Amino acid sequence: PHPLLAEEKIRRLSLRGIAVDLPEPIMQPLQVMAFQEESAPAFAAPVPDSNNPPQTRDPEEDLLCIAKTFSYLRESGWYWGSITASEAKQHLQKMPEGTFLVRDSTHPSYLFTLSVKTNRGPTNVRIEYTDGKFRLDSNYLSKPRILAFPDVVSLIQHYVMSCTMESKNEAPYPPPSPLPPMQKEMAAAAVHLKLIRPLSRKDNIPSLQHLCRLRINKSTADVDQLPLPRRMGDYLKQYPFQL
């Protein structure tokens, strides 16, 4: 985990977000292990490659990236801040499958946790930050297959759109390739991650402006082509997402 995470959880920088032009590759929703925040399993770390030493990132880049994500999440309406895993479970317990929220992680090495209602009940998946990218936390063997995104809202939106396309597709996905014994055991314990709708905070009702922005974002990917005043265009770019 990045050493700046603990510092950022204290500072909670608030900068204006900028538009992110992120491609949306289509993929099947992941089978994600359900980690409990209090007792995550430990996996062996990869052996460093002496021929390719890791590149040193500018700490300022990490701070700006994390601050941008906080800005986006605050605008979203479904970021619940510092609630606990138990409180998230209470909010999601009676919700339909696929209802989710993002909250602060109680683990000191992570910033955020995705809490979601699955077919087995509410569960939590940490969101990992590494080298300027966010991804869902998973075991070491699965990490190479986990997509990474420049901010948390882009990450969540990708999986929501993937689930939406999966539900519209009548043809089943092709059967997966046979797994080694170890991966079979992990797959048996995995939880199917289905993200359908965010759970908004009751004390943070979205404004009419924000609802209009979401509708516009669903209709076009290039707000610069719209005949809008510059101030309105800047407002749209502050949150370039559909949920």
From TrEMBL:
Gene3D superfamilies to which the protein is assigned, alphabetical: SH2 domain (3.30.505.10), SOCS box (1.10.750.20)
SUPFAM superfamilies the record matches: SH2 domain, SOCS box-like
CDD domains registered for this protein in UniProt: SH2_CIS
Domain of life, source organism: Eukaryota
GO biological process: intracellular signal transduction; negative regulation of signal transduction; phosphatidylinositol phosphate biosynthetic process; protein ubiquitination
Pathways involved: Protein modification; protein ubiquitination
Domain SH2: 78-175
Protein name: Cytokine-inducible SH2-containing protein
SMART domains linked: SH2, SOCS, SOCS_box
PANTHER family from the UniProt entry: CYTOKINE-INDUCIBLE SH2-CONTAINING PROTEIN, PHOSPHATIDYLINOSITOL 3-KINASE REGULATORY SUBUNIT
Cellular component GO terms, alphabetical: phosphatidylinositol 3-kinase complex
Gene name of the record: Cish
Domain SOCS box: 194-242
Keywords: Growth regulation, SH2 domain, Signal transduction inhibitor, Ubl conjugation pathway
Gene Ontology molecular function, alphabetical: 1-phosphatidylinositol-3-kinase regulator activity
Classification via InterPro entries: CIS_SH2 (IPR035887), SH2 (IPR000980), SH2_dom_sf (IPR036860), SOCS_box (IPR001496), SOCS_box-like_dom_sf (IPR036036)
